Structures are given as C-alpha cells and as structure tokens.
Amino acid sequence: MNQTSLATTDKDNGPVKRPSHSLQTPELSAPAHQLEGDLLIEELASDAERGLDSEEAARRLSQYGPNLLRETGHQPWYQLLLHQFSDLMIVVLFVAAALAWYLGDVRGAIVLMAIILINAAIGLYQEFHAEQLLERLRSMIRSQAVALRDGEMLELDAADLVPGDIVTIEEGGAVPADLRLLSSNELATNDFMLTGESLPQEKDAAAEPAPDAGLAEQDNLAFMGTTVARGSATGVVIATGMASTIGEIAEIGQGIKRDRSPLQLEMNALARILTRMAGLIALALFLINLLLRSEDFADLPALVNASLLFAIGVAAACVPQGLPAQITVALSLGVGRLARENAVVKRLSSVETLGCTTVICSDKTGTITSNQMTIVSAWADGIDYDISGRGYAPQGQVLREGRALEPAELEGLQLFFQLGLLAGNGRTHEPDADHRDWYAMGDPTEAAFMPLAFKAGLQPEQCLEDSELIAELAFDSQRKRMVMVRRVGGRAVAYMKGATPSVLEACSQIVRGQEVVPLDDNMGDAITARMQDFSAQSLRVIALAYRELPGDQQDYTIEKTERDFVFAGLVAMLDPPREGVEDALKAVYRARMRLFMLTGDDPVTAAAIAERIGMPDGRVITGNELRDMPDAELRDALGARSVILSRVSPKEKYRVVEQLKALGEVVAVTGDGVNDTLSLKRADIGVAMGKQGSEVAKEAAEIVLTDDDFSTLVIAVQEGRTIYQNLKSVILSSITSNIGELSCVCTGFVGAAVGLPIPLTAVQILSIDLVGEMLPLMALTFDPPDRTLMEQAPRRQGSHIINRKSLVDIVAMGVLMGLGGYFSFYMVLLSGGSTGSAQAAAFLGIVLIQYVNILSRRTVDSIFSGYLIANGKLTGSIAFSFLLVAAITSWPGLSTWFGFEALRLADWLWPVSAALVFLAIFEIKKRIL
Ligand code: ADP
Ligand code: MG
C-alpha cells in the first residue's frame, strides 16, 4: 500500500527533495492547468453531476492514501543527542570532568559525568517527546470538506478526499486538496504559504494559463494548504496529501512554532551569567585555596592540583545545568496537558503569555453562542409567525397564533419563505456516517433557511433549481448584507438578506397587504421596533428583501444592484449561549480578568445574550459611535469592567484590541469567523474555535480550541499560570541552593583561617545537586495549581523572575542555608566527631534545608496543608532522594566513597534542627505577608 512508501519518505532529511516515484498521482495527458475541466473529469474517471461513488472513493483512498500532510525532515536521534552536548553549560561540566579525571580525581569525574548524562538523557527524552507532541497536535486540528459523493453534496473529513472528488470551497474555508477549478465566483485565495505573496490571489475557472506558467500564474488551480480569501468555487481534486504541491515543496503548513518564550530567554541569559560567574568563582577559589595552604608550598604541583580540583568542583556546582532544559520540558508538558483538555497550542511561548491575560475580547456568534441557528419566528406583512422544530432537521411547522398554517394559507407566503434560501449558499444535509443529526454546510446563518423552507411546505432543492444563479454579491462584515441575483422564469430577480439597518438602507418599497407600496419612515420605525423586540429576546435577526432587476442590466455591481429593494420581512434565529459559558465567565472574573464582547450583531441582541451569560452591566458601544470616538475617549471607555461593542466591523475590532494593548493590557481574542482574523492576529494570544471556526481563523490563531468550548480557554489560562508559578519555584529553589553551597564553602574559608577543616569537598558539593535536588526539582514542574492561583490578579507581562526583590530573598535564604550547613558541620566537630562525619552533617544539613526550601516556595500558604502531598511525583522523589541521602551519610559502606564518615544517630540532631529553623523562618515570613 502507499502508506509504507509514505512512511519511508517521512525519514528523509531534506524537506524539499523527495523521490517523486514514491507518491502516486493519477496519470494525466497534460499538466492539470492545461486541461479543460470536462476532459480532466473524464481522465480522472469522475462525474461532474454525481461525483465519485463511495466504493470508488474508498478504493482510491487505499490506493492514494489519506489526504494528510506529514512532517518530513525529522532529526535523527544522534543529531538530537549531539545537540544536547552543544549547550555551553554542559561543555563547561564536560571540561571539568575531563580535568578532574586527568588530575586523578576519579570520583569527582564520575559524579560530574553522572550529572552530564542525566541531563543529556532528560534533554533527549524531552526532544523526542516534543516531536511526538507536535505531530499529535497537528493531527488534532482537523478540517472538513464539502464534496459531491453518490450525487449528493455532503460534508466529510478532508483527510478522506481522493483524486477525482468534486468539492466546493467558500470564503474562510481551506482549500482541502489541489483542485482544478470547474466554476468560480469572485474567488481569491491566500497563497502566501506557497508563493510568499501576501495579497489574495485571484482565481478563475476560465483562466487559461500558459503551458509554462509558474505556481503563481496557474489561476485555474487552487492549492491545498491555502485558504479562501473571498468568493466561492467548485473544483475537481487532482492531488492529495503529500502528492499535493504543498506536500512536495514546503514544510508542513499547520506550522507549530517552537520559538523561545520570554521565560526561556530570561533563563538562557541567567544561565550564561551564572556560568561566567562560576568561572570567576573558580578562579577566586583557586587563588584563595593556594594562599590558605601556603605552608604546603614545598610541594607546589600537588597543591596546585588540589586547589584546581576544588575550584572546578565548586564552580561546576554553581552552574545551573538543568534550568533551561527544565523550562522547555515544563512548557511542552503544559502543551501536552492542554491538548488533553482540547486546547491545541501552536506556539510554545503562548502558554506563558496565557497566564498574563488581563482582557478577553470575545466574538459573540460561534464563540459565546453555539452558532447552531434555528429560525424560530418570522414577521412578514405585519403578521407574526412562529416556527416549530429545532436544529437543522426539516420537521416542523409554520404557526400563526398557535395554529399550524394550512397549505392554502402558505400559498401567498411562498416568496417570503424561500427568500432567505435564495439569498444564500447554506445547505443542510441529513444524518450520515460523520454526523448524527441533520447538519449545516456552509454558514449556519444561511443554512438555517433551508429547514424554514421545508417547514413552509416548499421543496428547497426544487426552488434552487428553478432559479438559476446569475451573480452573487457576497456577504461582508462591512455591508452586513448579501445579494444573489437569479433567473426566474426569464426575469432577473435579486434576493437580499442581512442586518436590518443594512437591508433597510437598500429598500425603497415594502410588501403591504400583498401589494408593493413605497416605504415611508413610519414603516421603517415599525420594522426597527419589531427587530428590537426580537433582539431583546436574544434572537439574531435577519431582514429579507427582493427586487426585480431591469431587463437590460448587464453587470451586477453593488452600486447598481443594491437599491430600490422591496422589504419582505424579518426572521429571528435562536442561537443559544454555549453550555458552561456562564461558569467559565465566573472563573474569568474570579481570576481578575475582564471580558469584552465584540460582535457584528445588533446591540440589543448582544446585550440580551450578555445578560443571559451573566456579564455585569456595562456600556454598549456601537460601531457608529466607535468610528467617531477619538482614541483617548475610547481608551477611557475600555477601562470599564464590562463593555459590549456591537455592529463593529473587523477594522473596528482590530482598533479595540490595539487600544487595549496601548493601555498595557494583555489581550486574548477569541473568534471563529473570517471577520475575526485581523484581531486574532493583533492579539497577544489569538484563540480560534476548532470545530465550527473557519480555517482562516484557525490559521491566524495561536491556540485552537478543538471542542469549541469557551470554558476551555479558562482552563488554558489556569494552565499558563500554573506552569509559570511552578517554574518560578523551580528556578528560585535551584538558585537558592547554589548560593547556599557557595556560602557554606566561603564560611569554610573563614573557618580554615582559624585552622578548621573545610566543610565540603568538591565531590560532596556536586553530590548535593545530583542526589539531593535534581529529582525533586524536576517533579516540582508537575505541581497542581495552588488554591489562590486563579484568584490572584494576572502577573505583569515582562516581569522577571529574577528581580531585585527575589534576588534579595534568594541571597538571604541561600546564605542562611549555607550557614545552616556550616552550623551542622561545626556542631558535630565540637561534639567530638571526625572531619568526615562533620562533612556528612554539612551535606545532610544543606539537603534537608533544600527540601524545606522547595516545599515552602511552592505555596503561599503554610506548607502544612493538603497541598503538601498534592503532587505525588514530588512527594515520591523527595522520599527517594531522602533515602539516598540517608544512605550516603549514615551507611558506612557507601559514605566512605563520598569521603564521609558515617553519621551517628545523635549527629542528625544538628542538620535537622537547622532545617527546622529554616522552616520556621519561611512560615513566619508567610504569616507576616
Ligand atoms: P458576529 O461578530 O457576532 O460573529 P457577524 O459578523 O457574523 O456577527 O454578523 C453580523 C450581522 O450580519 C448579523 O447580525 C446578521 O444580521 C448579519 N449577517 C451575518 N451573516 C449573514 C449572512 N450570511 N447573510 C446575511 N446577513 C448576515
Ligand atoms: Mg462570529
């Protein structure tokens, strides 16, 4: 099967060059852009009317493989391994190990090598894990395609497309495979990914590119991986998956970026500083050591060796080897956890930014609401109708004052009940393999008119067939209306639907008592009043109008066509808020963030929905007001707790995001539509809906919610905060102990001046890192959020973990830790212990204090709470580490290897009491704060 050949190409290194014989595309008599559509369909053994039949499609699927892009150019394992050793800190440790070995300190070299290898293993595991994770994330963002199969249009998984399929594409959607266009309407695609051209590329089924036309000129083709900027088209699939143009030339489209986050940058910088400082410290220690032992000058080479070894060991212990790797591990673990919660993060660093979010700007339709449109009411010729039935199923009736209308009564309403259908592209389809219920294809707002026609006793398919499409003036969020011109019995009729004010603008007449009369201001007011009644019930209102066009009209531009319409009536759609939004919103406010609603919809509808989901009362600003508002005033308005912006265009959404950012807010924008892409891109974090959202929105976003659930965003914010919090504890604890070790050594020099032995040897210091803290620090990144995390104000973006305040804190605590170690050492000496056992006590003291340090830094509460054991990995690794440490310090067989003499039970008193004092200091500090 083709699968295997795809698998082998996966391992290729060069993403560009791939042997073409390994992939199959159907044989064609000429390049696809040179073939007429009809001929091409014939050569592909397809059918323009019926598409492929499902058996043939299944056969082709197994022949050509699924329509998926796979990643090429994986790094082989040995490159990944080598990569681990390219790190400056690891190099430093390597040199230290080699030098130690050379100078005869075998134990020091072994401990150093163990540290290096463990770090490399972690790094390697992490890179493998990251690769797999990215692969999985990519496959989570699935897209749908609309194709003709067995004579029917239906929606299927884009991965199931095969050459020969007839598909339709429309604005906001992705081009699901390489297509030869068969018909097109004002089509333009975003080909940036293929050609680097940032402006939409106009496409036309009738174009005749030259035989040697390049990709950018093959205007009768549309390419997989591009998206539809405007217009619509049908086309026949000529290549899928890795055989498509993008599969052949480019790195994979759904590029998941692995850029460095601010925290990673801060840590890399810090690591560099500390590594350099370690160098200086080594030099200083070396000189001090030489001077202190000047009486040994007789044997100079031996003295130099010993001093050098000591200096290297201590300096190596100061290098924060694990830190940068740990941050990457923690971030990618977070990305993995988020994926399980249905949030696909396309960029590692956005996990961090998420935690800083202060304002969420959310689109209404499709984000806060479910975008499942059901027309529930209609108003035509001054009469109200109720429509029964829910969802897209055709069952239901048109009722007037609670009584279902007879077919005879519906007779005169035929035009009204099919108008919306004729003015749109949306269709519905019965349940099939991929869908349990009737479902919408295309824009749900448009699809909702199909069940309406059914319920009014019409045959929607027949209506559409009887009125051939001549021209389409597509919907855009600026005009907020759309028109379709159709030929009906020899006449050209234009059908319009849109937002009520926009439609009224284009109307000069109205249907009154079954007759067409001029539209006057009173009637306009009545329409607006009726619309507001609907809106107040949180319904989405669409106005309908039509116009018979002059017989001699040739071209159908907006200017010539969109005027003198006859107003026909209103329909009202139910689009209920998504489940769980109310609770999610409470969590948003608890976490001291704000939510603004940005919608193209009516202010009254927006306010009604806002009330239903529990948004606090706030100002409603309309697009018109916004346009006249100077920046300063807008910024003032945006300071409020809750703001609704209604009837805004994409540009105005963008402006709001921009002004919020100017106010220093960290803005997350959630959206699903084409009209949201600008603001999604401008946001600090763009969040798109994965299921119902348009492909362009998903592409513009950094995070895709695959369950379309607004509350997933709150979980994502929590994850972002948790990760940052955990990394903060890791970093601070880790540096504290380095300072602790160093200050213990320095105190040792003071002691040496009065003739005391040194408290810790180089091997012993390195062992503190290895057995005492490596595992617990790693486990720390798995901490669950602490009680208060989602009740605090978001942290400031750009704040550093190492700042003046935290520096004072870690230096103070570090020095205390060092003194605690030296105290233990000194007390054992004083009570008659040997140098070896005093050193074991110093070692034990520092490790125990480090446990306290780690456990205290992870919560703002006392460590004695349920949270103490909330992280099983941490509890386990501290227990394991403690066993090792106890064995090293107290079991004679092992302790001699580390240069210790085993501790007596009574010697434990001093390290334990030092740790308790340290604990008390932390607890008191927390109480006071
Ligand atoms: P939102 O920003 O909440 O997603 P939209 O931009 O989708 O809102 O819609 C704005 C307004 O445009 C709606 O209130 C509706 O009246 C109108 N509208 C939306 N979609 C269509 C459509 N396909 N055809 C006609 N009018 C539409
Ligand atoms: Mg929307």
TrEMBL record:
Residue ranges of domain Cation-transporting P-type ATPase N-terminal in the record: 31-105
UniProt keyword annotations, A-Z: ATP-binding, Cell membrane, Membrane, Nucleotide-binding, Translocase, Transmembrane, Transmembrane helix
Transmembrane segments: 80-103, 109-128, 273-292, 304-323, 806-830, 836-855, 867-888, 908-924
Subcellular location: Cell membrane
Keyword Transmembrane helix in record: yes
Keyword Nucleotide-binding annotated: yes
SUPFAM superfamilies reported for this sequence: Calcium ATPase, transduction domain A, Calcium ATPase, transmembrane domain M, HAD-like, Metal cation-transporting ATPase, ATP-binding domain N
Annotated GO MF terms: ATP binding; ATP hydrolysis activity; P-type sodium:potassium-exchanging transporter activity
A Pfam family matched in the record: E1-E2_ATPase
Cellular component GO terms, alphabetical: plasma membrane
Disordered: region residues: 1-30
UniProt xrefs under InterPro entries: ATPase_P-typ_cation-transptr_C, ATPase_P-typ_cation-transptr_N, ATPase_P-typ_cyto_dom_N, ATPase_P-typ_P_site, ATPase_P-typ_TM_dom_sf, ATPase_P-typ_transduc_dom_A_sf, ATPase_P-type_domA, Cation_transp_ATPase_P-type
Annotated GO biological process: intracellular potassium ion homeostasis; intracellular sodium ion homeostasis; potassium ion import across plasma membrane; proton transmembrane transport; sodium ion export across plasma membrane
Topology within the bilayer: Multi-pass membrane protein
Cross-referenced NCBIfam families: ATPase_P-type (TIGR01494)
Family: Belongs to the cation transport ATPase (P-type) (TC 3.A.3) family. Type IIA subfamily.
Protein name according to UniProt: Cation-transporting P-type ATPase
Species in which this protein is naturally found: Seongchinamella unica
